[in-house]
Amino acid sequence: MRDWLTGLGILVALLAASWALLILLARRLPPGILRDLAAFIPDCVTTVRRLRKDPRVPRRAKVAVLIAGLWVASPVDLIPEFLPVIGPLDDIVVVALALRYAGRQVPREVLMAAWPGEPRLIERLLGDSSHLSRQGR
């Protein structure tokens, strides 16, 4: 039993170290689409946490973003994460669909306030946002 726990501890430490390395490397990416994609999932996780706690968000939208958050956190993937470029694609698609659904259920200003990243990314995901710039987000 002790050997199993030691192995599990080593596995968790290696996983945490690999995440830290990926975060460090992602911060060194030049501005552009790759950097935006690297920041997309962490921004989505933050948005999910914020929307879950907001009383203005309907229950069905909270359920949708919670399912998306669980999907991202789940070790089971349709496309394994270790595949370059397409590995996180299923996570991105599920989160994008959940956020689009929430975008139809939640006032846009609530969703925009919950989004910590570059506003143009969430605006592009949600669709036409020409009226947002006039509202003074």
UniProtKB/TrEMBL annotation:
The chain crosses the membrane at residues 6-26. Keywords: Membrane, Transmembrane, Transmembrane helix. One of its GO terms (cellular component) is endomembrane system. It is found in: Endomembrane system. The keyword Transmembrane applies. It is a multi-pass membrane protein. Its main location: membrane. Residues 61-97 form the DUF1232 domain. It comes from the Bacteria. This is Uncharacterized protein DUF1232. It comes from Salinispora arenicola.
